[in-house]
Amino acid sequence: MKNGEPIIRFRDVTKIFPRPDGRGEFTAVDRLSFEIDKGEIVAVLGKTGCGKSTMFNIVAGLIEPSGGEARVVGHDPFREFNFFRGKIGIVFQGDRLMPWRTALGNVLLGLQILDTEPKQAEETARQWLMRLGLSGHEHDYPHALSGGMRQRVSIARAFAVDPEILLCDEPFSSLDEMTARDLRAEFVRLVRQNNKTAVFITHQITEAMQIGDRVLVFHRPARIAYEARLGARMNEPARRDVSEEIMRVLAIENRADKP
Amino acid sequence: MRNSRTLRVLQAAAGIGALAAGWQILSMIFPHYLFPPVPEIISRTIEVLITGSLLADVLLTAARIFGGLFGAFILGGLIALFIGQSKTAENFVAPVLTFFQGIPALSWVVFAIIWFHGIEFRVLFIMVMTTLPAFTFQILDAFRSMSKDLFEMTMSFRPSRWTLFRFLVVPTILPGILTAWKVNLGNAARVVVVAELVGATGGVGYQLLRQQQLFDMAGAMAWTLQLVLFVLVVQQTITALENWLLRYRAVSERAM
Q1: Can you list the pairs that A184-191 forms with residues at least 24 positions away whose Cβ atoms lie under 8 Å?
Q2: Is A85 at the interface with chain B, CB within 8 A?
Q3: Residue A81 gets which letter from DSSP?
Q4: Residue A252, phi then psi, degrees to nearest 5
Q5: Closest CA to B179 of B130, B142, B124, B146
Q6: Residues near A57 by Cβ (< 8 Å), separated by ≥ 6?
Q7: Of A115, B84, B154, B244, which has the fewest CB atoms closer than 10 Å, so is most exposed?
Q8: Which residues are within 8 A (CB) of B219 and not within 5 positions of it... i.e. 6 or more apart?
Q9: What is the pLDDT of residues A76-91, one digit of tens each?
Q10: Does the pLDDT at position B250 exceed 80?
Q11: CB-based contacts of B137: which residues, under 8 Å, 6+ apart?
Q12: Given pLDDT bands bounded at 50, 70 and 90, which one contains residue B52?
């Protein structure tokens, strides 16, 4: 990756899937273009089924675009799959913890896959559990942890491999508001402190506004309908204006969907 | 929990005790060559266990059961993992295994006697062929139940195929493997006796044939009990192993 080059770049990326019933195809992502710079936290907003998760899976290298060009740190995330070992950390919608591993074992997973020296790996995993307030729960199995604690473990798992990029797919959507708010603040603090780049998918405007340096609002199929740069110095009335504009864009999307 | 375990043991003991009592009553009604008394059966059973040359027959049968099950497990596991990744392969292989499942154990015994010379190879062949389909289908089912979410999560760390197998596939199919062992153990114990009865010169099946020729019911019962005890001990060992390996599973207090 050259200096100054965006860390994630989509140019006219399209993803077409065959319909599950085998009759024809549908477009999930339609000529999507955007760039994300190093150190940015970008919140991606959109209605359910607008292709946010498809975009997410393309960045993660789990699926290949049907057209256009997707580049992450200057490389193709799908074709150069192994190049990205340890470079991308993902926090999923559900905690996706392995039920047969303890909290410590789950945080160790990525480190073990990356062949980190065992002693070093355990130390790193313990440190991340401690940073996320889970000291004393290292040997608890997921079923013994609350939803919030499990999601903390999954955040620790993503951070433990020290990735350049963090991808988050509605990670707090299944938690109660109090827990979600605490974790959101914790997440932003950790991203800033560790100088990471993060893409945060959400369907909540307040969450996007709270987390993002920038908010991208998606059409259905995925294409940018609205983009706003936020920043810490943005005053309250200006934030309210952005929030109202996002609501207006989403309302238009809603009307367009109705027959 | 301890109380409920004690209660279960007591209930099981009461069931076995009732069976023994019923048998003892029958031994008082019918001649002993048909229904020998329970103490005689117990003493003959102990005699087999403490007499080296007789115990060797029990151990030989145990080795044959383990050999057959292990062979079927390895082969079945490889087939399951192969067809689990290819629908086309499954379309070819699954009907063959289903066909094998329909062949009676006794037919495999006849085929083995016609095809092969060595006794041990015959028994191994029979054991493998009779337990292979069940192992394959049970491991395949466990493989298919692998969580897509966990698969994607693991893949996000870019593991090698071997690492993916170790960290995700093995723990996923482990409960299925343990169930397959428990189910097939009983089947194997029955099949091995048939195989030994017809084509072996040692083992529990061979000894049962001898007792039949001597018209010795107490001996037949003693040798049968060796097999029952063997299955019970191995089942309990697998259950203990299962409880330890799957200790991560949440248990509802109501289920205890």
Answers
A1: A184/A210, A184/A211, A186/A132, A186/A155, A187/A91, A187/A155, A187/A211, A188/A41, A190/A131, A190/A155, A190/A159, A191/A41, A191/A166
A2: yes
A3: G
A4: -60, -45
A5: B142
A6: A63
A7: B244
A8: B44, B207, B210, B211
A9: 999 998 899 889 999 9
A10: no
A11: B80, B97
A12: confident
In angstroms, the CA A161 to CA A125 distance is 9
Say if CB A82 and CB B159 are below 8 A apart: no
* A175, A91 contact by CB (below 8 A): no
- Please tell me the distance from the alpha carbon of residue A182 to that of residue A177, in angstroms, as a whole number: 9
Please report, as a single letter, which amino acid is at residue A146.
Answer: S
Instruction: Check: CB of residue A182 under 8 Å from CB of residue A146.
Output: no
* Preferred mutation among A56, A95, A113, A151 to probe B, highest tally of B CBs within 10 A: A113
Please report the pLDDT score of residue B251 as a whole number. Answer: 67
Query: What is the band of B237 on the pLDDT scale with cuts at 50, 70, 90?
Result: very high
Most confident stretch, A64-68, A168-172, A219-223, B3-7: A64-68
Q: Does the pLDDT value for residue B136 go beyond 80?
A: yes
As given in the structure block, the two tokens for residue B243 are: 């409880």
Task: Report CB contact under 8 Å: B156, A113.
Answer: no
How many CB pairs below 8 A link A and B? 57
* Strand stretches in chain A, DSSP E: 8-18, 25-36, 41-45, 67-72, 88-91, 165-169, 197-202, 214-218, 224-229
Q: Which two three-digit tokens encode residue A127?
A: 């440190």
Token pair belonging to B44: 């003959």
Out of A81, A92, A102, the one facing B158 most closely (by C-beta) is: A81
Among B135, B145, B143, B146, smallest CA distance to B83 is for B143
Q: Which residue of A has its CA nearest to B150?
A: A96
pLDDT tens sequence across A145-185: 998 899 999 999 999 999 999 999 888 887 778 878 888 88
Q: Which residue matches tokens 């017809």?
A: B198
What's the pLDDT tens digit per position in B92-115?
999 999 999 899 988 998 899 899
pLDDT per residue as tens digits for the range B206-226: 999 999 999 999 999 999 999
Cα nearest neighbour of A145 on chain B:
B250
Q: Show the tokens assigned to A10.
A: 């989509």
Interface ipTM > 0.95: no
pTM equals: 0.81
Q: Which of B158, B171, B248 sits opposite A82 (nearest CB)?
A: B158
3-class SS shares of chain A: helix, strand, coil, % to 5: 40, 25, 35
Token reading at B179: 């169930």
